[in-house]
């Protein structure tokens, strides 16, 4: 009798439970909408944070390598890794900066002449004439302006470099501070799993970054040797461009091959074909040697998902999104595997 008196008039337990659930759903939807709006506004900021994380992963990986080779204390290894990287980059720009800048300016200025010469050479062949007829209606002035702006912005890499560098340095100086901060946000029952996920992400990104840097150096070196043997002008800039653009799977090597083939086409059609074959052979070597080495240290990324992620990230955030599409895809796949797939397997095991 007392329970009936204390119960609010006109409302049953089912009605109260239903209203409570409705408010929970409304709150979740409102929170989701707010998070989506925040992510949409601050998406580029999140990308810069992720890029800074990659820089911190690079510095920590280099520090691990120095520690394994020298057996020094961790602090001294990091003091060598971070300033040593900037010192090495400064020396490279000191010795090659003027040459690279001059070649980039020359490549930018000669690009319209290269297009005109390519059109002339193609018009002299039957298949080239058909190709020109197919692209006759395309706005070539737009293509040339896009290419010129690409070369005038240091290989098209645009972004808040200083912010990314400083974020990377701060993450490198005290990684445990940010790692422990993330773990504190996780409920007590999931802290161990959070540590395991972060450690696996670190291992995957280190392996991917190590293999990517090795592939970039290999492709730049082989491209420079091949272009120098063929007598292609601006070989140093084209080789560095090939190495840097290899950071972008699928599309990067094709973008790097275009200016080299155009320069070869200025000389002769056979030279352009030889240059294209050389680039293709270098990519085959990289795909069959370097890529398998990378995939041993990280998950196997499906090619279709890689292309989809590049197109999606490029649409959302331009050049920076394309550059970070592959490591972001690797991160997402690891999170899905750790937080969903493995939990599903564990639940099936418990049911059995």
From TrEMBL:
GO biological process per UniProt: transmembrane transport
The UniProt keywords, alphabetically, are:
Membrane, Transmembrane, Transmembrane helix
Which GO cellular component terms, listed alphabetically, does the Swiss-Prot or TrEMBL entry include? membrane
Protein location: Membrane
Q: What is its main location?
A: membrane
Bilayer-spanning residue ranges: 21-39, 45-66, 78-97, 150-173, 213-241, 247-266, 273-291, 311-336
Q: How does it sit in the membrane?
A: Multi-pass membrane protein
Belongs to which family? Belongs to the autoinducer-2 exporter (AI-2E) (TC 2.A.86) family.
Q: What is this protein called?
A: AI-2E family transporter
